[in-house]
Each structure stands twice: as structure tokens, then as C-alpha cells.
Amino acid sequence: MKTSLRRTLKTAAAATMTAGLLAAGAAAASAHVHVDSDDPAAGGYSHLTFNVPNESATAKTSKIEVSLPTDTPFTSVSVKPIEGWKAEITTSDLPKPVTIAGATVTKAPSSVVWTADAAHQLGQNEYQAFSLSVGVLPDAGTTVTLPTAQTYTDGTVVKWDEKTVEGQAEPEHPAPSFVTTAKDADASVAPAAATSSATPVPSAAPAAAASTSGDGGSIAGWLGLAAGLIGLAAGVTALARTRPSQAK
Question: pLDDT tens per residue, the chain (248 residues)?
């Protein structure tokens, strides 16, 4: 009985420890700076939201710098204002010209920096969401990596710039990233195509059905009339034959 109780207690303790470790791991992972895209479809525009937690126990987060891609640059970048934070977009020459939507692009936004005033710096157990509107997004299947530097009031700079490799353990400071998806169908073309292909089918089918129904009804009517006339003629003939025999 005692042995069984000890085993139960050990099992419970192990389960509690495992749950604690998993929770700690989940908390650590969720504490990373990461980015969410509301619409990652290629060829379109998206709102990107960077969730930035303060991870220092002694200092506050005072500045965030996001580096934008230069191999698949955005031709449009705008910032959502945040109270107490000043945003600055820097445009730079690209390493080499890039063709986007048929146009050659030699300059593009290369970084966005948010700097907080003293009253709005991020303290312990605080986080802030930084939002961008960007476009045009590159081809489907492209991993858009956005290295981010987080500066603290004690001078510490944490660089979230390590590449995440599928099948390998997540690095300590993974770079925020997202993957583009298939291009959205052109709303102005798709409905027209659907209408042109779908409309003739339902409109033609009722017409054919009405035609068939009308022909069948008229034929049946004529046949019925003919049968009635034949029956009438037969009745008259039979009556004519009967009268002479009755007269005799």
C-alpha cells in the first residue's frame, strides 16, 4: 500500500515538473518578438503587427528598429501612429535594381525606427504592438524576414536576427518572419468570368424545357382532338346502321 502511494506521489511530482517546464518553455517562446501578417497573399498589401515584450528585469525598452528586405523590397510602407512613440522610415538605394509590377525599382524603404519618450517606454511585464502597412508582397512561397533590434534604457541591444531552420531547434533570438501565400484572384475579373460561364447554362436550360413542354402539350392536344373526331365518326356510323335494321 505504501509502495503504491509513493509511486503515485512520484508520478504526480514528475507530471507537475514536466508541466512547469512546458509552461516555462511556452512563456519563453511567446516572449520573442514576432510579426503577424493579416493578409500574406502575393502581389497585395498587408498589415504587419510586431508584438514586442519587455524582457529585462532592470531596464525599459526605449527603441525598436525593423530592417526591411532589400532583395524583395516593399514599394510602399506606412506606419500606424502610437502615442508616445516617434516613427521614422528610412529609404535607401537597393544593392541592385529590382523589377516590381513591370517597373524598375532602385530605391525602397529599408528600415523603420520607433523611439519612445520617457513616459511611454516599456517596463516589466509590458509589451507594445507596432503596426506597418506594406506592399507589394513578393511571389508566393517567399519567406519575408524582418530582423529587429530592441534597445533598452541601460544601453543593451537585443538583436532578433537569427534565421529559423525547419527541423532544427528554434534559435535564441529568431528573426520575425512570415511566408507569402498564393495570389488572390482578381475580384474584378473573376465574377465576370463566372457570370459569363454560368449564366447561359441556367437561361438555356429553362428555355429548352419550355420548348419541349410546349411541343409535347400541343401534340398531345392534336392527338386527343383526332381521337375524339374518330370516335364521333364511329358513333355516327354505328347509329346509321342501327336505324335501318330497327325500321324493318
Answer: 555 555 554 444 444 444 443 343 334 445 789 999 999 999 999 999 999 999 999 999 999 999 999 999 999 999 999 999 999 999 999 999 999 988 999 999 999 999 999 999 999 999 999 999 999 999 999 999 999 999 999 999 999 999 988 888 989 999 999 999 999 875 333 333 333 333 333 434 444 433 333 444 444 454 455 555 555 555 545 445 545 544 44
* HEC-encoded secondary structure of the chain: CHHHHHHHHHHHHHHHHHHHHHHHHHHHHHCCCEEEECCCECCCCEEEEEEEECCCCCCCEEEEEEECCCCCCCCEEEECCECCEEEEEEEEEEEEEEEECCEEEEEEEEEEEEEECHHHCECCCCEEEEEEEEECCCCCCCEEECCEEEEECCCCEEEECECCCCCCCCCCCECCEEECECCCCCCCCHHHHHHHHHCHHHHHHHHHHHHHHHHHHHHHHHHHHHHHHHHHHHHHHHHHHHHHHHHC
Q: What is the reported pTM?
A: 0.64
Q: In CATH, what number does 33-184 get?
A: 2.60.40.2230
